[in-house]
Amino acid sequence: MSQQLINLTLNGVPTKVSVPVDMSALEMIRNVTGLTGTKYGCGEGECGACTILLDGVSLNSCLLFAVECDGRQVTTIEGLASDPLGLRIEKAFVEAGAVQCGFCTPGMVVQARQLLQDNPHPTREEIQRGIEGNLCRCTGYVKIIDAIEAIAVGKES
Amino acid sequence: MTALDNYVAPTSLEEAVEQLLELGEVTILAGGTDLMPQANAGRVKFKRTLMNIRRIPELRGIAREGDEIRIGALATISEIMAHPLVREHLPLLVSAGDHFASNQIRNAGTLGGNVCNASPAGDTLVPLMVLGASVELASMLDDKLYRRTMQLPEFFVGPGKTRLATAELLAAVRIPVPPQGFVARFHKFGTRPALDISAISIGVGGVLKNGVFSDVRVAFGAVAPTPVCGCATEEALEGKKLDAATIAAAAVAARDEVHPISDVRASDWYRKEMIHNMTKRILEDVSTTH
Predict the structure, then answer these.
(1) So what's the ipTM on this one?
(2) B-chain residues near A58 (CB < 8 A)
(3) Domain-embedded: residue B1
């Protein structure tokens, strides 16, 4: 398999990596650059655990070819630690008890950020629609929706 | 069997079609949302070269050109749904996009990719057929960039099969601006709202004037090897007053003209019943439009 040298900005840091042409961005993020916050759930775009931002837009990194990250901005859950909205979402998740096993949480938080960026005051139904590409097998979603709603209505504690 | 050993990312349409002609064995990468899982599952084998077409500006953008709206092959489903021209003239694409996979996949998946995958259940295909869309295909001819257009129903040959030639690239989808009074609906029926593959889908469009439905287009998804025109249903509706008798006759025509298969998602009998019931429901909804 031929390797391709690519330059990307990963969580604000210019990064140069060599990746096989058929590698997914998820594999690159976890196994080449060593950022393991982004999770592998299904590998088919069904579960959303691998959600990242590419040039500020959320997508499934398991469906993205690593070579497509060349010249672009990649933001993972680790990158949201220095993002004001990302931090608010993380805090709201903790306060609402929206985290159980935690496996879906990074993808949920990244997608919640996309949702709140597109629509700062979503209704509960809009929140449900916004995270329909993210599966959680622990919480039944209620507390996750509560957490996002807390930000939407400005009721963060 | 040759393995994938080459990667190219052309930055113009001309360069891309030149390379297609030169390299021959090429797998095209656009959004990747179908290519990646299909390749991982072994359903698609990479050819020798992977061509990433995402760096080609001519394949981007949505613009009005005369009486048509041209949607670049690389426009993502999210970009299409948010675009003012689409929202004004092609609301059918907005409502169809709403049922397309998930937000993350709409942000990555492209219209050109959905069309070239030619899935009988492809979510944009039935609405595009109702809108009378054609595809703009680019290739090199006598050392010059050559474009031809083809009506969508003609483009589809079978599941995953199109009339796209080996050294040809789908550059855009062209949609005539619908006339005054044009009403259209799309209904996708699956078992859950998100991330589902349709058991059936139906699109209906036409001009409704004083209760009379004309210039009718009907298309069905997931009932044949390709998305298909509902020609008998169209005939049952064309120029008729959209009353209960017309709607009932059209629903029967729809059921009788589709020949679906039984598979993991639904039986042939169930698909036919759903086509009947949903066609009726959609037409009742259209008839109440003012």
Answers:
(1) 0.95
(2) 103-104, 107
(3) no
Q: What is the reported pTM?
A: 0.94
pLDDT given for residue B193 in this prediction? 64
Fold (CATH) for A83-152: DNA polymerase; domain 1 (1.10.150)
Q: In this complex, is the C-beta atom of B110 within 8 Å of any C-beta atom belonging to chain A?
A: no
Helices (H), A17-141: 25-27, 84-96, 105-118, 124-130
* Chain A residue with Cα closest to B54: A68
Are B71 and B149 found together in one domain?
yes
Enter the CATH code of domain A3-78: 3.10.20.30
